[in-house]
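Structure ticket #2291
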Amino acid sequence: MFDDKQNFLNRELSWLKFNERVLNEGNSLTKPLLEKLRFIAITSSNLDEFFMIRVAGLKQQVESGINKQDDTGRNATEQLSLIEQGVRKLVQKQYRFLRKIIYYMEDEGIFFRKIEQLSGTEQEWINNYFHNAIYPLLTPLAINSSHPFPLLSNRSLNLVVLLTKDMEENQIAIIPVPGVLIRIIEVPGQEIGKTFVFLEDIIISYCSYLFNGYAVKEVIPFRITRNADLLINGEEAEDLLVEVENSLRQRNRGATVRLEIGKTNNDFSKKFLMDIFKITNQDVYEITGRIDTACFMKVSNMPGFDYLRYRPLTPQIPIELKDGRNLFDIIKEKDILLNHPYESFAPVADFIRQSAVDPNVLDIKQTLYRVSGNSSIVEALIKAAENGKQVTVVIEVRARFDEKNNILWGRRLEEAGCHVIYGMAGLKVHAKIALITRREEGLIRRYVHMGTGNYNDMTALLYSDMSLFTVNKQIGIDACRFFNMLLGYYKPVSWEKLIVAPLGLRANLKRLIDREIQFAEAGKGGHIIAKMNSLLDREIILKLYEASHKGVRIELIIRGICTLIPGIEGVSKNITVRSIVGRFLEHHRIIYVANGGKSEMYLSSADWMKRNLSERVELLFPIDDPQIVMRVKNILATMLKDNCKAYIMKNNGNYRHTFRRGKVINSQEELCREAEIRAGIRN
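Resolution: structure written out below.
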């Protein structure tokens, strides 16, 4: 009954609905103008990754003749057809919103102009800028029997030029738009406001300089998206680091999965490019605006227009961490929970920094998945090794699109004397944990930090995550076992507190759900609240359907992909699904179970996806302090009351924006206020 294909949504279409919710922030009535523009840019970046990974994977299935069906019964060909329809609608909506934003930006003195719209003085400046700054960097490439088509980088902007000479047939040339130059250029001399032009427009206007003796018939901008998924056999690779480095070199050579091209009435250039890249009309997106709206991200951040952006967030330091006491002394007294970005990531960095200089700290072990370009955490680990501490770092070099950055950090850590492990064979290490071993009064005490998000200073300002400091002995023992498992041949036979994937996380999630089923069947009421980024795992979904059928109330807060359908009579009537999309990227992974009145709360690094539960090293850890349990439960309650930035999934898989009845509740703003209260700066 529960496993009928009509009870599931397609993963890719669910993701497109999520990106549409992101896009809707670009049309929000309450959002500042430049913040709207930021979400237009984010939508494009999201789509790029979707094509590079998800669409590319489906295309590989088709090319390989794999007839695998998803949970809805669709094969790859059918999914690609539905994706195309969904993306075209999304892109049309995106450019409609963008045109509206640009129109209102003119009221604020921000103008985007064509070259011919500029004044004589401005055009003179453009002329000088072209010859002095742009022309020396241009490389026009003829395409003919003597000059084969060049290898164009993934997501690079290019111009295809159609040329004629005397009675000759059409000639084709390619001009790569220099990626080292700023794409959106401010024209100087404005007394009030700002005027911008696009780099490609300047090149198009001066294109004739590049083709002496030829007439330029047409110039069209285009961009290709390539398959960028690294094909790495982690189990068979003799040296995982070398394997990743070799695969990175192939990323710009992957097969083309999408062609974005400026709208034109002449199909000659489009058909030429389609033949070159071996793609069909399904893969071609004709754009009636600027290709790659991610370029507007820099405009959304430009100085001088703060009133068109959100008031800057000041992440708060909880009052118990403000008195200058040693962080180890504070953690020894009680567990500390931080709710980022409302509360500062600084104590996490301080935890490692203090460990680096504390003479009593003997050993530091830490996992790293995504690391910022200027990481205070890594610098502290380097300092610790230089100070003679024993430092071991498990750094995941297969963190998608952060591989190169992680390799660079890994080598710096090695140079400083740290022992670096570059992931595990066959499994990505996605768990977020740091273990500090400290000598105190002749005894050894273990301090542990665990979180739902990465050890990344930058994303900690943008992503909502929770992290926990504890000196709990059982968790300390488990943390030691966990690192022994990662670093050698040690296989734990049992765990005190931690639940680890792929060794038993799925089984334990099902156990927690089964326990709620038992309470519901006994008339004691079963209740589950779970927050995550994505819900895809078929086994878990079937177990949730069973729980709903048996009377367990299940409230899910899922930012992105969700292939479970709520509200189906006899299947999921007791399940609700909501998605919150606001200023910050919702990234917590939280699980609450009522447990017959003895409620339990867990935090995790894992989403409920097959890859997280079966193919990655993940952690689920309990919160034992009753006050922290109550605090997290109140945070979840605030999210469930959100009637400003929340969307509710209906039983047809579509989402509706929550209605504002009574008091308007924006959960992210409420959590900002809660952090200020905990910091002692608001009553």
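Closing remark: The longest strand covers residues 215-226.
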